[in-house]
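Example record

The entry below shows one chain as it appears in the dataset: sequence first, then structure tokens.
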Amino acid sequence: MDRRVKKMLKLIEEDADSFAKKAEMYYKKRPELTTQVEAFYRMYHSLAQRYDHLTGELRKNMPLDLQSQGSGISDIGSDIPPRCPSPDRRPSRRKSVPRAAGFDVFLSSGGNSSDVYKKGDKSSSSTDSELEYDDYSVFSGNECDQGVNGKMAELEIGLNEMKEKLRVLEEESTERGAKNDNSDLLARIREYEEEMKIANGRIQLSEEKITSLKTELQKYKQLRTTGSESWIEESAKMEKPEPIEVNQAVELQNKISVLEKENQHVDSKMQALLEEFSTTKEMLKGSENENASLKLERKQFYGTIQDVQGQLDTAQREIVELKLELAERSNCIKVLKEDLETSKSERNGLMSEMYSLKAKVSSREVRIVQMDIHLHQLHMEHVKLIARAEAAQKLENELLSKVKELEDEIKRQRITILEGAEAKREAIRQLCLTLEHYRNGYHMLRRAFIGNMRIPVLTT
């Protein structure tokens, strides 16, 4: 939003080389300026709706004790005086400047833009009334946002005033467009003057040609008279009984025919020049009449241009005043935006505290539930341990009785084992004796066998 406001101010405060260029610049950049204003209003409207939605949710979800704290904060904030002037102290709109004759017709071409502005103003006023109704319905029971609502209302009023001033500036720029028409008329007058100069030059050239042709005609007339005189003399000579050659007569006839042809050509040329002279005279009279009418129109337009120049000077002074007022309004908007940012930061701080408290309460509730579950589990484990201890006691008694029985059994088995061991020893003793007996018998047989084997060897 700050970026769009800066761009809009740059479009409004941009300077040009001359006053006419500045008017043309305003006329060309009017659609861009209107789009910037509309985008600025849409962003502001969406921001206000988001703020209303968030404050409504905060009011619904806020506990009672936090609401009481918020109301105390709003009472403190409402005691602070506003930095921007109230709507009642706004400067009144400027009075309309009287226009020159014919300007209403010229400004009729720019009626569409004014209609668009009127429609935009109507839609903005309807949306503003809806916003005020929504604000009242949402914040009727909540005192913590009264200061912020007042600041937002002042911002909306300032925005409407800025739109109205921009519309007035645009109308003035269309009025300044009349100077371009006057410049066109002056250019036409200059063109007509140049055409008059060219026509005068052509007339002078034609007059010079006429004088030169007149001199040539005089020469030809003199030649004709001299030729006729010579022809009369020659004819008189021919009437004399003196002999004349035929060739000289033919030459004279040829000269006479040539001179007659030249005379006819000069007459036709003279007639054409006279006709051209008459047409140029008529054109000169028409151009002189047109020049006189254009001079009258130029005088009238000079008067209207002076009137327009005076109106443009007054409009320039009003533009300077409006620029200063717009700068003051922009400063007020900056201050109000800073206040809005501080209120938003406070609201965000309260929201964060509320969320942290909710998180703590929910965590404690979860811990309590977990401790109940753990306690129940411990009780069940204790009951199970008691049952297991009783079962273990019974098992221990059974095992002790079994141990006693096993000890008796072990004693009996020991006695039987000892008896079996004695029997085994005796059997082993008997086996040892039998083995000794068999071993002695084996040695005796071996000796006898070896002795029987040696006798045949000795005999061999």
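Notes for this example: Residues 15-19, 63-145, 239-244 have pLDDT under 50 and may be disordered. The longest helix spans residues 246-459.
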